[in-house]
Please model this.
Amino acid sequence: MAQIGTNEFKAGLKVEIEGEPYVMVGIEFVKPGKGQPFTRTKLKHLKTGRVIERTFKSGEKVEIADVEELKMRLLYKEPNSAVFMDDNSFEQITIGNSVIGENDKWLMEEICYDITIYKGEPIEVVPPTFMEMEVVETDPGARGDTASGRVLKPALTNSGAKIQVPIFVKQGEKIKVDTRTGEYVSRVQ
Amino acid sequence: MEVDTPIMSRFAPVDEHIEVFSLLFTQDKKVFLHSSPEYAMKRLLVQGMGDIYQMGHVFRKEESGRLHNPEFTMVEWYRLHIDYQAFIEETVQFLNIFLGGLSYTLLSYREAFLQFSGLDYLTASSEQIIEVLLRRGVFSSQDLCRWDRQTLLYSLLSFIIEPRLGKNGFTVLFDYPAQEAALARTFLKGDERVAERFEIYYEGIELANGYHELADPLEQRRRFEEANSARIKAGKEILPIDEEFLSDLAKGLPDCCGVAIGFDRCMLLRHKAQALSDVMPFTWQ
Model:
């Protein structure tokens, strides 16, 4: 894979350090009086999310990570995996639940997801920031339940997510959710 | 007297760690933007100008950062026949115009290393330096074992020592190792060959770099050639040595001291700002 020098470092750059994929989240240039300059970086592991700090001599080169980002549509879920398809090439891939992880609760058929591929293997499935889904289970909110001060109640969506919704939201209604925080945003007409 | 010298030159300042911008004056003629007005000002001193100063833009081809911008303002002056110590005091006085009446402490390079790392830079081994750096938790061992001894010393200086200088007043770091003499004179201090070079720090920020100026053209040429060799070894291009500067040096540079001050950083500290972008209208970062 190609290499990149410290003078081209920027946030969002995906690099490979000792065979592991990272995204650069912070960069700082440091130079003593008139000596060797250094570039300090904060790197977030693409698979584990762990953040490390590494320092490079100015001019040092690092490997660009063989990372690709594809948009693929979910065709269907299986017990231990999910099958996605690329709309352009019609290529299908099966991604295991271990890679999907917590984002499993945002999987809905026919929706497009951002798949991160590292060295040919999918390592991350990212849902759209906002998704519309149906509330399949929730208690009817007692009207005027203001005495107890409760304004939210638990609900289950058709994608399998458990979120808090306002008490006026009824079972069967469609809502908009922020997948980054798992929070209710609004009702959908 | 104030002087105004050209920024553009056929020659480049030759230093192992300073990168300069070059332009194609014509398809086959390359010219360079100065990283300091030093060479031109020294040529004026040889021509008998007397004490001179200049304030203008200088250029360094390097990354931008909180304290770095490829184009910045330098204040530089030279004073003839002045005592080195008195010159340091004069520089402190100048900085105090902007930063208020701060006092200063002198700290030798060797003493700074001993004080902040427990190591003698002359004798410490790479392993010892690595051990200190690891203990501070500032680096990963994978980074450190890639670097040679000189780089390890620089990282000790940049990351451990410099941030601690200039608390409660200026720290004047002086008696630099002869290797870092650049354009300063050197002398033997016991078992240590040191340069008459000082740098002034405040709040961990380097503001000024001053010398008792080297007048020996042969020694100057030798240093330029050494710097170019180091550049080749580091995979960098050789830079054309300023022959006009060297031939003027041969005519006799009067005994003088000179200093260069990063003026934007001075303003940053005066206005208690966080970054150069707070005190400069348009920066590259």
